[in-house]
Prior knowledge:
The protein is mostly helical. The protein has 10 helices and no strands.
Amino acid sequence: MLLDAVDQVTAGKTAFANLPAATRAVQLPDNSFNAGSYFLTVFGRPESNSACECERSMDASLSQSLHLFNGADLQTKLTADTGRASALVKDATKKDEAKVRELYLWAFARQPEAEELKLASEHLARERKDKDGKPVPPEPAKRQAYEDLLWALINTKEFLKIQGFGDDITAGLQFGMTISAAWDKK
Length: 186
């Protein structure tokens, strides 16, 4: 399930009312929890009113694309003080290259290709500026860079296909990322 995969990659936790803290979405005892999770609602966890597989919609929706692109659930997991981005910044025992390799293992169960490693390393090394054009201090800048990298990995075709989503949702995400890239150039 995509929600569990996002939790795993970001080291985030989704809390479900009246269940132990470590409960994963795939372990939910019934569908009464759908209403309490916008993520589960948007990504079509079926209500299980029948045994028919037709109850699950595999069609992508704009809501799904937008939720992954800028939804509060994902942003909260990416920016959490207990999340993976924060932990990577605090870990002084590893170099950025090793941390990027670790992220790729978490997201894709593979090592990054040379070009992917190069791009990620360049992104992590880039100086960041605040809205006033002043340099952001090193630790918050590095954390923001890791949050961005995690966000990008989660929003790739590869990650979504591993989680069982097809080309429809990734086409919507490509559209959103194209808009984002154009916006960044302004």
